[in-house]
Amino acid sequence: MPATLATRSQSRRPALIALALTLLLAALGASASMASAATPGTVLSSRYNMQLSECAGRIYTGQNVTAGQTVEVVADPTRQIWAGVWFTGNNGPAGWTSLGNSQTPAPQFRAFSLLTRIGTDYRYIGNGASFRATTTGPLYLVINDDVPCNGNGSFWIDSVKVIA
Ligand SMILES: [Ca+2]
User: Fold this and answer.
1) Distance between the two ends of the chain, CA-based, in angstroms?
2) How far is the CA of 92 from the centre of ligand 1 (A)?
3) What percent of the chain has a predicted confidence (pLDDT) above 90?
4) What pLDDT is stored for residue 14 in this prediction?
5) What is the pLDDT of residue 24?
6) Which residues of the chain carry a pLDDT beneath 50?
7) What spacing in Å lies between the alpha carbon of 104 and ligand 1's midpoint?
8) Cα–ligand 1 centroid distance for 8 (angstroms)
9) DSSP 3-state helix, strand, coil percentages of the chain (rounded to 5)?
10) Residue among 83, 42, 46, 80 nearest 61 (CA)
């Protein structure tokens, strides 16, 4: 009888080792996948003090956004451009009260305002805004201007943050 018991316990050991290894690998896999997904609210990238001139019309922030992440932009409302339209004054990043036209990057938003662009998705920023991205790609700051570089001045962007 003792010989039989010894044989049975030995035959069980490889199965226990296999189970322990399986649990260990599962735990390692779980911790690896948790490490790759940043905690919501974590700032993934940030840029400060960027100038966007009427002549440039747009700039790449150097940041890339994944759909589902939050983009937060703060602009200086006192920094203005002259859009290049005769008999009109200067405007800040909020833009004109009228909308763009078919030649502006985003006709549905205020003319000569500050926007973001990810892929083909434009968002109105004005003096500042945050939104959850629905598109993945490089993040641009854009003036909703139909004719870049016929005016003068610059917008000033205090900060651009991409947040998990
Ligand atoms: Ca212009």
Assistant:
1) 63
2) 13
3) 77
4) 64
5) 60
6) 1-2, 4-5, 31-35
7) 10
8) 85
9) 20, 40, 40
10) 46
